Amino acid sequence: MKVFTRIFALFAVALMLAVLAGCAGTDTRSSTGEYLDDTAITARVKAAIFNHPDLRSSEINVETYRNVVQLSGFVSSQAEIDAAVDLTRTIAGVQSVKNDMRLR
Question: Is 5 inside any structural domain?
């Protein structure tokens, strides 16, 4: 019975290490925690753009990777681009903003 208990304990430890390794990030892939943080930042940026009276949220795409927000899409004026970038910079957790928006 002791042998079975030791084998089971070793198996449980190996399984826990494998699960923890699966949640870790790499250079090309974010960890589970980073992914959740990026998702929350994206949601906050989208909500802020949606609530801004001068921006059309349906034409601005927002993606976040490791706290860097990328804005893309087509807008009508340089003022809209500036407003979206400035607004995004004020959101908590945003480290930097990449602007890929284009004028239509």
Answer: no
Closest CA to 72 of 87, 89, 59: 59
- In this structure, what token pair is assigned to residue 41? 């930042």
DSSP state of 61: E
Locus of tokens 């979206």: 84
Q: Domain limits at 79?
A: 30-103
Q: Is the pLDDT of residue 18 over 80?
A: no
Q: How many domains does the structure of the chain reveal? A: 1
Structure token pair of residue 100 = 């890929």
CATH (domain of 52): 3.30.1340.30
| Higher local confidence (pLDDT), 27 or 103 | 103
Distance CA 6, CA 78 (A): 67
Q: What is the pLDDT of residues 32-69, one digit of tens each?
A: 888 899 999 999 999 999 999 988 878 899 999 999 99
